[in-house]
């Protein structure tokens, strides 16, 4: 027999009003929440989400829009957002726009039609998409942009200080005697790519070293583009002594190119990669790598969404949260100062 709210009230010794308030999305005392959650689990109570949404005018669903399910950053983000948002009683709908701007806008409209309470997006940053996001926000659906900044509109953002960490990486390479430093950037129109390039250039400027344009190449944040751009760099008349790959997938592509050219990391060429510390530790020599605080990015996005929906805390708009990435030292950078 299906458990009812009366059964929950009897099990917990709480009033039917308290049970109903909690089931319908209201806030109750922490100790009461714990009792009700225990009763729901023990009695197998099933919440009627449709009826609940009619009462509360909420779907208790969050939409997540990402460019690809094959990208390490995106899949990690989805995993952690889902983990943290579920703590607050929300489920998620995941949409993949496959790097296509038109499909991205279709996915946004799809989630709005499903009456999600909020959208977390890793956007193409196109002008058309930003216009649509602005309309969605104005109509009452909360949007949080993660990783990438939308520069044409006001939108809540959770991102990493890309410029600072890129500058730190480049300075580290310069301090180890490198001046022929190549950087494999992401797409020009995406804020993360432009910020990481900016940090690279600022490091050269701070040391008074001219920037060699042939060492600045652009990929698409996928492995094959990292491979192609690394091959292009290695075939220059004066190839770089160090390569900084600005995301994980392109880092793999760079390593593939080095292997094909039979170049040994550190011995023949220095490399700094991005993300996925576990892989960096497996590669020999261990890779010096930038790590982004993925769990914190996801947690901050989840917390921001809940605060917006609950409206219990006065927040400025837009709310921009900036986190710091770390440079984890491995053995993939050779000090060539004595060779200059």
From TrEMBL:
Alphabetical keyword list: DNA-binding, Repressor, Transcription, Transcription regulation
Any one GO molecular-function label of the UniProt entry: transcription cis-regulatory region binding
Domain HTH lacI-type: 3-56
Lineage top rank: taxon: Bacteria
PANTHER family: HTH-TYPE TRANSCRIPTIONAL REPRESSOR PURR-RELATED, LACI-RELATED TRANSCRIPTIONAL REPRESSOR
Protein name as it appears in the record: LacI family transcriptional regulator
């Amino acid at each position: 027999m299906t458990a009812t709210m009366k059964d929950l009230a009897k099990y917990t010794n709480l009033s039917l009003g308290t049970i109903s308030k909690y089931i319908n999305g209201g806030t109750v005392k922490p100790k009461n929440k714990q009792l009700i959650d225990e009763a729901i689990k023990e009695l197998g109570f099933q919440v009627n989400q449709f009826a609940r949404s009619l009462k509360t005018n909420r779907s208790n669903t969050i939409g997540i829009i990402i460019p690809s399910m094959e990208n390490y950053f995106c899949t990690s983000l989805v995993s952690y957002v889902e983990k943290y948002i579920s703590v607050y009683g929300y489920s998620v709908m995941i949409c993949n726009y496959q790097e296509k701007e038109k499909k991205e806008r279709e996915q946004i409209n799809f989630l709005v039609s499903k009456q999600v309470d909020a959208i977390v997006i890793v956007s193409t940053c196109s002008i058309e998409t930003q216009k649509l996001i602005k309309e969605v926000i104005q109509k009452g659906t909360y949007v949080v942009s993660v990783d990438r900044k939308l520069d044409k509109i006001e939108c809540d953002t959770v991102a990493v200080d890309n410029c600072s960490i890129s500058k730190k990486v480049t300075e580290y390479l310069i301090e180890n005697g490198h001046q022929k430093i190549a950087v494999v950037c992401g797409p020009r129109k995406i804020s993360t790519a432009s910020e990481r390039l900016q940090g690279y250039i600022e490091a050269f400027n701070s040391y008074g070293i001219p920037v060699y344009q042939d060492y600045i190449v652009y990929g698409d944040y996928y492995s094959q583009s990292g491979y192609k751009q690394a091959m292009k760099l290695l075939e220059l008349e004066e190839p770089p002594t160090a390569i900084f790959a600005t995301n994980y997938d392109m880092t793999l592509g760079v390593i593939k190119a080095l292997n094909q050219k039979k170049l040994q990391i550190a011995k023949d060429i220095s490399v700094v990669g991005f993300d996925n510390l576990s892989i960096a530790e497996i590669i020999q020599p261990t890779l010096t790598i930038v790590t982004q605080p993925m769990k914190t990015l996801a947690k901050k996005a989840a917390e921001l969404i809940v605060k917006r929906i609950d409206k219990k805390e006065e927040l400025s708009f837009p709310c921009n949260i900036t986190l710091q990435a770390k440079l984890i030292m491995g053995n993939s950078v050779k000090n060539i100062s004595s060779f200059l």
